[in-house]
Amino acid sequence: MNHFVGLFVDPATGMVGLCKEGGLSFMYPVPSTDSLTYEHLGVCLQGDVSLHDSENLLEAARLTRDQLDSEVLESVLSSEDPVAVATEVAEAIANTQSKENMSYRETLESLLLPIGDVHKLLALLVAELDPSYEDEMIETADVQDSETQLAMSQLFASPVSERLLADIVGRRCLARLMVTTDLLLLISLLQHQGKVQNVNRVLYKLSTLLQNYHTLHWLCCQSVVPTSPLSLENNMRQLAALNISSCSRQPPINSGYIPMSYVPFFAREM
């Protein structure tokens, strides 16, 4: 599958492009690259997540929500910094050695591991919840990523291309935290959706929102670096030859966090 791996913004032409493994999949004109909204990107963003995978993701979110006590759950839903509270949630679950929690981790594994590359990053949640997971594994992966990032960035001349590559291959050491953040987002969406008549429609919408989340994350937290159309086209040809797959949903490297106030905004789109 030709997965979404990033976003290009070209202020010179007022165009926004979605980047997939095979190259630039779509260029879309917007009124202003300084104030992009969900509506501007709606034509570009298309869900490629199966309903079966969506059901598994939502079930994982429900299980996670049920594991949290009321105080932690309230903190999740009210916090303006989901990245910070994600650490607390992950630690609370990982430090509970009950039979119920062991069963919960096994169930999560059965739900998340069969999902393909689109949500491969989410499978790392199992490692996050496993107390035997060693931090040395992260450090080793981070070194390898740094070497890969350096080699790949040498192919590119413009700052926007180097940053996109860093977004894709960098910061593996933060992957476990970001995985938990994704589940927290799903939990919050479930809380906001209320009673649903058409379950399949909502599952599809939530899976699409999960895909759109990292793009909106990038838009909210990154400054735009101008690049000429010629440079953009040249960079995309080089990117298309890299055959990127396992990091297709890697969160942005300098993304900060997305405020939880965006969750009701997502929910209104259903």
From TrEMBL:
Q: Where is the NUP160 helical domain?
A: 57-248
Q: Which InterPro entries match?
A: NUP160_helical
The name on file for this protein is Nuclear pore complex protein Nup160
Write down the species. Answer: Geodia barretti (Barrett's horny sponge)
